[in-house]
């Protein structure tokens, strides 16, 4: 009996030791999970460094709300936060904490009753800016929740005081849509909200019901979200499970993403611009989705006119777009995006 208890205690201690430092027992024993095996085959020697970067806490910047009457940056600095402006472009001002410390939750400004800043990944800001929105445009955010990119688009659309444009924000999930509605109402003034609408359609329906309606379309597609999956497994002190991620699931994601992208293309006007993005590191859900859509739409053309922003972010060029990896983009991402324009009919 004593020997049996000893063996069980030793097994527990070995398992505990294998888990330290974010390592799982399978990693310690040299047995790779399906997740690690798959991405090691894609990224080779880079995978260990990329995996370590994916396991780190997500980094965020503060998107400063241009619709509040006070200066959000000044307010933050008054409260003792050491902040610096990272980007100031197209009515979109982004700041980050110099110290790297967590920024406190945004408070509502007394005069406007709007929150003064919104926290999100810097790569998401760059992807939204790549849509190149101008006042007067009709813009569709097809999978908009929780709303960070929609706020970037709203500031480009309405930040100069021109309210002739239109922003349609869509999400099929009622829970996510409620979050989206709350974000827009907490950050956008009443006169801007009049020019915004929130919808709950299946994204595949937009192209069928609203053909060639929008000047700009952002499709931030549902994806494998490998960083979230990996961090969730790490929090549980185990490997990524097959029901959380698998090559087959990634292929199913890609099939849906192609359908969504085809719908987005249909709803885009000639000369209009579209950005397809994901937070996946799987080429199956990124360049290959774009490749399939382009083969079926000869009128679509890939454009690369945001190189300074790409270089500033630290993103890497792919066959059709760009991707920010946290191991080389200062912790931002992962985020893939491709910018396309619809050619005028000849």
Describe this structure in words.
This protein has 346 residues and is α/β, with parallel strands linked by helices. It is built from 14 helices and 13 strands. The strands form two sheets. Strands 5, 6, 7, 8, 9, 10, 11, 12 and 13 form a nine-stranded mixed beta sheet that branches. Strands 2-3-1-4 form a four-stranded antiparallel beta sheet. Helix 6 (122-129) crosses helix 7 (148-158). Residues 5-30 have low confidence and may be disordered.
Task: Describe how the helices and strands are arranged.
Elements: H1 2-19, H2 25-28, H3 34-43, H4 47-55, E1 61-64, H5 72-78, E2 83-89, E3 92-97, E4 117-120, H6 122-129, E5 138-141, H7 148-158, E6 166-170, H8 174-187, H9 190-193, E7 196-199, H10 206-209, E8 214-220, H11 226-235, H12 247-266, E9 268-278, H13 287-295, E10 300-302, H14 307-313, E11 316-317, E12 322-324, E13 335-342
Parallel strand pairs: 5-6, 5-8, 6-7, 8-9
Antiparallel strand pairs: 1-3, 1-4, 2-3, 9-13, 10-13, 11-12, 12-13
Helix pairs in contact: 6-7, 12-13
What characterizes the major β-sheet? 9 strands, mixed
Helix run count:
14
Q: Please trace the helix and strand order, writing H or E for each element.
A: HHHHEHEEEHEHEHHEHEHHEHEHEEE
Distance between the termini: 85 Å
Estimated share of beta-strand residues:
15-25%
Extract low-pLDDT stretches.
5-30
Average pLDDT value?
Answer: 89
Calculate Rg over CA atoms. Answer: 22 Å
Q: Which structural class best describes the helix and strand composition?
A: alpha/beta
Net shape: globular
Helix content: 25-40%
